Amino acid sequence: MDLEQILRQTRSVAIVGASPNPDRASHEIWTYLKAAADYDLFLVNPTVSDIEGTPVYPSLADLPVVPDLVDVFRRREHLPEVLQDTIAVGAKVLWLQLGLWDEQVARDGEAAGLQVVMDRCIKVDHARLLR
Where are the domains of the chain? Predict the structure, then answer.
């Protein structure tokens, strides 16, 4: 898997587990991507309606577009559900942030045609490969 190719081909990113708390990694990644990347960004969290004036969607199914990449900030036990939602909406890439690793989710995602990236920070890889 070529991370640079994934990042270059991506046009839209859904951030699952987006947080309004600026101290949370999901908020930091969203802030970075808004400033440094030319992606259409969509925030997903069923418990928040907006973050700094940006709408937050309750689920991937509620997004107005099919995201190319789903960037996940959820606990490991939620990954199978996020995978199923990612497959259902037709995204191409499931990106599990630093600290998230699940071999079964990876196998199931790849069997469904997804590219699966695990235990990597999209901010770090974007800055390293595309800036």
Answer: 3-130
pLDDT tens for residues 28-59? Answer: 999 999 999 999 999 999 999 999 999 999 99
Rounded distance, CA 86 to CA 41, Å? Answer: 15
Q: How far apart are CA 90 and CA 22, in angstroms?
A: 30
DSSP per-residue codes, the chain: --HHHHHHH--EEEEET--S-TTSHHHHHHHHHHHH---EEEEE-TT-SEETTEEEESSGGGSSS--SEEEE-S-GGGHHHHHHHHHHHT-SEEEEPTT---HHHHHHHHHTT-EEE-S--HHHHHHHHH-
Its pTM surpasses 0.70: yes
Task: Specify the CATH class of 3-130 in words.
Answer: alpha beta
